[in-house]
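Exercise 3.2. Students should predict the tertiary structure of the chain below and write it as structure tokens, then compare their answer with the key that follows.

Predict this chain's 3D structure.
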Amino acid sequence: MKLPLVALCGRPNVGKSTLFNRLTRSRAALVHDLPGMTRDRSYGRVTCLSEEGEAEEVFELVDTGGLDFEGDDVITQGITRMAQAALEEAHVAILLVDGHDGLTAGDEEIATRLRRQGKPLLLVINKLDGMKGGAPDGGFYGLGFDQVLAISAAHGAGVPELIEAIRSRLPFHRTPEEAEIHSLSDELRFALIGRPNVGKSSLTNRLLGYERSLVSEVAGTTRDTVDTVFTVKDKVYRMIDTAGIRKKGKTHEGAEKLSILKAKQAMARADVSLLLLDAVEGATHQDAVIAGYAQEAGAAVILVVNKWDLVEKDTHTIYGAEEDLRRSLGFLHHAPMIFLSALTGQRVSKLFGMIDELAAAHGHRIPTSELNRFLRESVSAMSPHAIDGKLPKLYFMTQVGVRPPSFVIKTNTDRGLHFSYVRYLENRLREQFGLAGVPLRLSIQKKQKGEDEPVETAVVRRILDPGEGLKPSRSNEALQAQKADKIKPRPRPKKKEGPKPAAKQAPRKGPGAPPKRVRQKSTKRS
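Answer key:
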């Protein structure tokens, strides 16, 4: 059921994103002192609580970029266009102004344009803690608004009164039951990742069929992650458009570092990551670095080669391009690959089938009996390499987690296995159980006395909310707990006792020398 929509608007750097995070009780919007951080629309739900602390009403809130009608560059005009689109679909508009700066000409122009729309309006003066004299500028009361509220979005002062004022202006109301809030576990989450200017936002708009993210030829247009929930054939998807990740040596601004951090968080929230590559430039070292981030976060990877319409092609072009890309990204040789064009829409419709297939493999559970049969066949085909002169014995194997699939192999040594043999097992797992494109976690543990074959259980990775931080990298929570309970500290090897060295001979001269022997005179008479 549709929810009432409330839009936050105002000049740049007046605190819209801070208020958005405060009302939605999240950290979904990127907050920084630099003006113009928000460029795309961010949607979130606000839950109104009763006096007993129970949820009684829900409405949707949209955060927009700063309105600047005099800007002549492409980015500023695009931000203003996206903000106006949000205001047109909203039921209530909130004009947020900066109480520290006082009334400006930009505030007056925005207020004039909002009154022309004829929608319920609310003037909110932010940064109450920074106002001179502790009171807002009197010019704000001359803008013609019915109600003026003074708040501090950073500290929460006046926010309860703001929520009540919003509720009184909503044209209709929705309870949490009427909102039909679906569970996060029902969503299939995929993220669009890659270098700047490879077409992530263009592909977002193409998949949705409308302008959801701002697109321009300027690299780094997208700064924040943009979450969009939509339904295709009764399946709920959450698509996450991320900012481009540049090399660390070229990342100097604090705002860009925050954008990269949010992009890494998106990989941790996603089941599938679509790594976009430039068909004209080919795969670069930075593409491999970003793919490593996705693998470390535990997300499955699809290689999406964009801008395929700009390549001059013949019958064998696609095969040569795939071979070059596979060679450049050798550790992703198993990942599925697709060539498309976000601009023309070529092959874009095939993406959903690949995402569904890879997401199913990402959460696949394999019975322990099949894993043990697989382990016996793998060892029969090729035995593990000796470690420190000792040949490892592989007793049994079990799955301890999904998303990504995580396995434990019990052996007779705590030295682990050679990395080449672990890679051999991973490749056979992907080939036999259809896990291509999925990162695998293999833990080699020494079997303890009295330890039997475990029960067929698998732990699901905890689903992160949009505002949460990074999940642990490389190590699965179930594996960590099992290591803490069952693995004992490795004893230090005892040194072998060899023959003792002979005693050193005393020096003939010096303070440590033995006393000289004095020849005694003979007592015999001559």
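Discussion points: The first strand starts at residue 5 and ends at 10. The chain is about 30% helix and 20% strand.
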